[in-house]
Design goal:
By secondary structure, the protein is α+β, with helices and mostly antiparallel strands. It contains seven helices and ten strands.
Amino acid sequence: MSSLEGQFLVAMPDMADERFAESVILLVGHGSEGAMGLVVNHELANLRFADILDELDLGDPDAVIRLPDAIRQRAVMRGGPVETGRGFVLHSSDYHSGHTYPVTEGICMTATVDILKAMAFGPAPRASLFALGCCGWGAGQLEGEISDNGWLTAPFSQELVFETPVGDRYEAALASLHITRATLSPDAGHA
């Protein structure tokens, strides 16, 4: 299987693992040693970006309080069940640090506190998504799950990650494949 890096995984409706039910995952890495991705459509309900800034002490508390609500109230995504205490930021390619990893055309990932400071106090990337945790697969594991009809693959779309409302991303990912939940079959076909 060729690399799926920079593509979406879309969970099939009968996904057996509840942690991934109705998930859309952007694969930020995929090769012979395994794969890594971030869920882009599940928010952590009781956590906002300002909470992360406070917890990490990433600015004067008065400055954090004065941030616009659009920054303070930004959603924190549940990126996956691995390394749940570690933050990852998917962002537009207009931001770079020494730790920025290009994922696909127009989108990068940075996992250091410098991006959090930039998101809060500037200069911020044009678009960004902050997630705690990630998804990981060992060598051949993801390929097996795809073969067993656990996942569909869909092409990358910046619009889906940065502009589509979080609650609509699963349906939008399916629509990018010209399918709906009603047209999906839980049975895998193998030639």
